[in-house]
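Researcher: Good morning. I'm working through a list of sequences from a screen, and I'd like to move beyond sequence-only analysis. For each chain I'm collecting a predicted structure so we can compare shapes side by side. This is the next one on the list. No need for commentary yet; just the structure.
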Amino acid sequence: MSMSLPAEAQAMVDAINDADTEAFVAAFAPDGFVSDWGTVYSGADGVRRWAGSDAIGAGARMTVLSAETDGSTTRIRFGWRSSVFNGESDGIFVVSDGRLASFTIPPNH
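Model: Good morning. Structure tokens for this chain:
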């Protein structure tokens, strides 16, 4: 698999690793969302809330381990270190009109 991410997805990863909440929120479309194991954080306020509780506010570091893009959807495997969670997960980015429409961390079964 390729390690290349669309610029919109890379902007989100960079914002997490740079602890830049404003850049994180700006990576998403106004109606964009984060879905973390089925809990959805919608719009700028929701995205900011997730960044504060589960990502940037939790000291997160995100390392993309693999990535594969098909059209507007990029599926990744990533490493995550934070005060909330440490380990590997899958993630799905959807890009629309130059911004993230969504970032989904599906439940692992």
